[in-house]
Specification:
- There is one protein chain.
- The chain is an alpha/beta fold.
- The protein has a single domain, classed as TIM Barrel (Alpha-Beta Barrel), CATH 3.20.20.70.
- Strands 1-4-5-6-7 form a 5-stranded parallel sheet. The chain has a two-stranded parallel ribbon with strand order 2-3.
- Strand 5, helix 4 and strand 6 form a beta-alpha-beta unit.
- It is globular and about 50 Å long.
- The protein starts with a helix and ends with a helix.
- The chain binds S-adenosylmethionine and iron/sulfur cluster.
- The site of iron/sulfur cluster has 11 residues, from loops.
């Protein structure tokens, strides 16, 4: 990448919106999360929308990212209100990338279609590992098979931009396990 291209990327208007809700708190997590309070999601979204409405107007956004926490625990139609508020306040640039972070166990084809329907065009899965023992060690709710099915469902629903997060160096992980995770992630991606 040229220095000019890097500068352009660094100054591209972008918005990150944090969605803190999770089913439970994973033992290794260092993010701002709240477990078992999904009933607050609508009020939270209303507060975010109000805050967006008060923010200084900016150039049309080239990147929007809803991360967490677990945005996939919140109804896509509610998340869509955040996207609408960002569009109304700042505008969305042509070709804007609109990402959502999801937990694999939440995603099936129907949810993926609803996410596309409200405007997301990139989906990022918190897969972490494709070794079942490593996932148990991390306290995760999904299995490798469930994660791969969710990725497939997202692609089948129409997502063309799909990413998977992996965590390297979990206690108990071996070189072989990490290599197998990478190979499976690339093969099924
Ligand atoms: C903020 S998490 C939210 C994603 C989703 N809730 C999940 O856990 O799959 C986004 C990504 O950050 C990475 N990460 C790095 N350090 C982490 C940490 N200490 N706790 C949780 N996630 C971490 C993980 O790969 C995770 O997928
Ligand atoms: S699901 Fe993700 S954000 Fe939530 S507690 Fe676990 S690692 Fe953290």
């Amino acid at each position: 990448m040229t220095p000019e291209a890097a500068d352009a990327l660094a100054t591209a208007p972008a918005a990150y919106v944090h969605i803190p809700f999770c089913a439970r708190v994973c033992p290794y997590c260092e993010f701002a999360v709240v477990a078992g309070r999904d009933e607050l999601a609508e009020r939270y979204v209303e507060a975010v929308v109000a805050e967006i409405g008060m923010s200084e107007r900016w150039r049309p956004l080239e990147s929007v990212y809803l991360g967490g926490g677990t945005p996939s625990r919140v109804a896509p139609e509610l998340l869509g209100r955040v996207l609408e508020a960002l569009d109304a306040r700042h505008g969305l640039a042509e070709g804007v990338e609109v990402s959502i972070e999801v937990n694999p166990e939440d995603v099936d084809r129907d949810l993926a279609a609803r996410l596309l329907g409200v405007g997301f065009n990139r989906i990022s899965f918190g897969v972490q590992s494709l070794d079942g023992r490593v996932l148990v060690g991390l306290g995760r709710a999904h299995t490798p098979e469930r994660a791969l099915r969710a990725v497939r469902d997202a692609r089948d629903a129409g997502f063309t931009s799909v990413s998977v997060d992996l965590i390297y160096g979990t206690p108990g992980e071996t070189d072989g396990s990490w290599r197998a995770t990478l190979a499976a992630a690339v093969e099924h991606h």
